[in-house]
Write a structure and sequence with these properties.
The structure is a homodimer. Chain A is mainly alpha-helical. The first copy, chain A, contains ten helices and no strands. Chain A has two domains: about 15-80, Tetracycline Repressor, domain 2; about 95-200, Tetracycline Repressor, domain 2, CATH 1.10.357.10. Chain A is elongated. Chain A starts with 13 loop residues before the first helix and ends in an 11-residue tail after the last helix. Mean pLDDT of chain A is about 90; it is low at about 1-20. Chains A and B meet through helix 6, helix 8, helix 9 and helix 10 of A and helix 6, helix 8, helix 9 and helix 10 of B. Chains A, B: InterPro entries: Homeodomain-like_sf, HTH-type_TetR-like_transc_reg, HTH_TetR, Tet_transcr_reg_TetR-rel_C_sf, TetR_C. Chains A, B: It comes from Streptomyces griseorubens. Chains A, B: This is TetR family transcriptional regulator. Chains A, B: Keywords: DNA-binding, Transcription, Transcription regulation.
C-alpha cells in the first residue's frame, strides 16, 4: 500500500510502476526495490552498489554508471517516492484535512519500515539528506492546498503561512514515532492537528504576526 | 554554555562538573568529554573504546570495564546530560513558558553540534536510542510543571495532558532543524508554542477529548 501522507510515503513505488515499458524503467524499478529491501533487511551499512546490483540482478557497471554510489541510490529512491500523484485529503475543514494527513503520516511511519530506514539513512549520506529535504519540501507544497481551501472558506485569515501550518501539525507525529521511538499515538496526532487548525483560525500562523 | 531546553541540552556537562573530587568522577568527566569531542569532530564511525581512551588519556581497560562499548559510552553521555538542574522558565503564562522552552531547544539544536550528533548516533546504537528516550522522557516530565502552573492559574482545563502539550509545542523545532536541516526558524518556534498554548487553553489537549 502506498499511503501518501505528507512526507510519509517515501516507500511508495508508484513512480516506477506507472512508467510503462522500457528496459531502462524496468531496471530502475528493480534497482530501487533492491535498495529498499536491503535497507530494511540489513541497514545502511550493508548497502553497496555491488550488493544492490546482485539483489536486483542487474549488471554492476549499469548501477555504477547510472547511480554512481550509495548516496545516488538513496537519493533516487527518495526522488522516485515523491514522484507520485499524492494529494492531501479534502474533508471540508482545515481540522479534518490536517487530522487526515496526520493519520497518513502515522501509518506511513509505523507501517512501512522503509520510511524510518530512509530517514535514518539521511543521517549517513548527504545526498540522501538533500533528497529527503526535497521530498518533504515538495510534500509541504502539495499540502499548501489545505490552507488555501481554508482561506477560501474563510476559516483562516489572509497571510497564513501554509508551510508552517503543515510543519507544526505533522511534526509531533515524527517526534513521537521517529525520534522518541514511542510508536503510534493517534491521540497526539489528532490533538496536534486540531490544535494547529484552531491556532491558524485565530491568525496565529499569519506571517509576521505571532506572539512574543 | 549549558543551555537546558527541553531535550536540547544533551551536550551539557553540568552533571560531571558538579560532582566534586574523586578520581572516578574525574575519569568519567574526561571520558565523556572525549566521546562528545570525537563524535562532533569525526562522527559515529570514528568512535571506539580505544579512540576514546586515547583522547581522554585514560587506560583503555578502565574504559572497557566501566562503559564496555560505544553504546555504553553514548548512553552515559546522554544520562550525564540529563543529570542537571535544568527547569523550564517561569514567565507567568503558558504561552510564554512554551515559547521560552522552544527558544532554548532551538539554541541547543543549532548552537551545540553535539546535540544533533547525539541524536544522529541514536540511529546507530540501540543503547543510545534508549538513553535518548530516557533523556527526553525526563525533560518532558520536568516541563509538566508549565502545564501544572497553567492549570493552577485557570489557563487550561483539568485533564490536560502535559506531555502531549510539550511534545506538540517543541516537535516543530526538531522537525525544522534536525530532520529538514532547515536551520533555525524562530517564527515557527514561536508560532508553534503560541498555537499549542491556545489549543490547550481551549481544552484540545484534555485526555480522552480531542476532535475526530
Amino acid at each position: 500500500m502506498t499511503a501518501g501522507g505528507a512526507a510519509s510515503a517515501i516507500g511508495g513505488t508508484a513512480a516506477v510502476v506507472r512508467r510503462p515499458g522500457g528496459r531502462s524503467a524496468r531496471i530502475r524499478a528493480q534497482v530501487l526495490e533492491a535498495v529498499r529491501e536491503l535497507l530494511v533487511e540489513q541497514g545502511f551499512d550493508a548497502l553497496s552498489v555491488d550488493a544492490v546490483a546482485e539483489r536486483a540482478a542487474v549488471h554492476r557497471t549499469t548501477v555504477y554508471r547510472r547511480w554512481r554510489d550509495v548516496g545516488g541510490l538513496l537519493a533516487d529512491v527518495l526522488d522516485a517516492a515523491g514522484d507520485d500523484g499524492w494529494q492531501p485529503p479534502d474533508t471540508g475543514t482545515l481540522e479534518g484535512d490536517l487530522t487526515a494527513v496526520n493519520g497518513e503520516v502515522e501509518v506511513g511511519l509505523t507501517g512501512e519500515p522503509v520510511t524510518a530506514a530512509l530517514i535514518a539513512a539521511s543521517f549517513r549520506s548527504t545526498q540522501a539528506a538533500e533528497a529527503l529535504r526535497r521530498f518533504w519540501d515538495e510534500r509541504y507544497e502539495r499540502c499548501a492546498v489545505v490552507v488555501e481551501r481554508a482561506l477560501a472558506r474563510g476559516e483562516v485569515p489572509e497571510g497564513t503561512c501554509a508551510r508552517r501550518v503543515v510543519v507544526a501539525a505533522t511534526a509531533p507525529v515524527y517526534q513521537q514515532v521517529l525520534l522518541l521511538r514511542g510508536g503510534a499515538d493517534p491521540t497526539l496526532a489528532r490533538q496536534a492537528a486540531a490544535g494547529v487548525a484552531l491556532a491558524a483560525s485565530q491568525g496565529l500562523f499569519v506571517v509576521g504576526e505571532g506572539p512574543g
